[in-house]
Amino acid sequence: MQRISQAAKAMLENTILPFWLRLQDREHGGFYGLVDFDLRVDKTAEKGCILNSRILWFFASAALATGRADARAAADHAYAFLKDHCLDRQNGGVYWSVTFDGRPLDTTKHTYNQAFAIYALAAYYRLTGNAEALALARELFAVIERRCTDAGGYCEAFTVDWQPASNEKLSENGVLAARTMNTLLHVFEGYAGLYQAAPDAAVETALRRILDIYANKVYAPALHRQLVFFDADYRSLIDLYSYGHDIESSWLIDWGAGLLGDADLTRRIGAINSDLAAAVYAHAYRGHSVLNECERGADDTTRVWWVQAEAVLGFVNEYAKSGDAKYAAAAADLWQYINANLVDKRPGGEWFWRLDAHGVPDAQKPIVEPWKCPYHNGRMCLELMRRDPEIDV
């Protein structure tokens, strides 16, 4: 038996860091954008800008936590690629993706994508003190506030020159959403990272506005969950319960709200987040793991990598708040499930994308692609190391 924080440190140093360090593209910059299920690297695959931002956030945060020179160098490498290839210097903002050699490919401007670049640049600034990185983060904050908002909140997708576009990229389950819970969550996350790095009155105002939307439009108290997809007036488009996003929100929004130092706000938002965590525990924590989602009453029983990572943190966070031992036990149980099933034991492996209800990996899902990154599982390890909860695994 060992503390979960010690196990997390070993996971970070023995599995996650080595895998992603190997994916640096020394010829064209950035990181290779696709590794298939058989661990074959496609060196000519597109490079998603969300993937690069998440990699930058991960290595900057890992270098801050560990002091490792190789993590710092990888953060420098990711920063250079974001700055030189992912930013649209003519129209402002960050592209959706670029080619393997750094030319604009999908030039969609998505609010979600801008937010992750802010999150990454803020972490890099915290690591390095690089004033240019902070300036770029603040510039993207201004872009979102100027280009991506309306009277009701945050809009979603735009063309390269900031004309409204259809939101297929962040819509799923047969609907086309004008607003999404997912984008709102990650704008909040990016802004919180920026506020942590460099507190600012305008960012605080935006964070408070997002928390108001979260509490009054997205959170559905009678259902004990968040709504997911909306029209422009926040009418829900589908009966969908995203277990993964709810457990992620339960700890991530607690963290961001806590940065503002407002005890009443922390209490009010914390009560919502405890409700989300309790509901996920009651409805989705089964078979030593957490289900993906529930659409119109039908559960998706696949076990997705990021959902398990966020569930560990959500239960650890709720254990710290409530002292209820069932959440500590659930976090430990999830950790054991992850190690036994999700961690790829093949030489050079990382984590599988998803498993079926019996724990069998989905061989159709790659190990790396524009959405599969070291941000969720890496952050789980880093947060467990930081928090060091009294949980043994």
Description of the molecule:
The chain is mainly alpha-helical and 393 residues long. The chain has a single domain, classed as Glycosyltransferase. It is built from 12 helices and 18 strands. The strands form 8 sheets. It has a 3-stranded antiparallel beta sheet. A 3-stranded antiparallel beta sheet has the order 12-15-16. Helix 1 packs antiparallel against helix 12, helix 4 packs antiparallel against helix 5 and helix 8 runs antiparallel to helix 9. It is globular and about 55 Å long. 51% of the residues are buried. The model has no long low-confidence stretch (mean pLDDT 98).
Any chance you could write out the topology, listing elements then pairs?
Elements: H1 4-21, E1 47-48, H2 49-66, H3 69-86, E2 97-98, E3 104-106, E4 109-110, H4 111-128, H5 131-147, E5 149-150, E6 153-154, E7 157-158, E8 179-180, H6 181-197, H7 201-218, E9 219-220, E10 225-226, E11 229-230, E12 240-242, H8 243-258, H9 263-283, E13 285-286, E14 289-290, E15 293-295, E16 298-300, E17 303-304, H10 305-322, H11 325-342, E18 354-355, H12 375-387
Antiparallel strand pairs: 1-2, 2-3, 4-7, 5-6, 8-11, 9-10, 12-15, 13-14, 15-16, 17-18
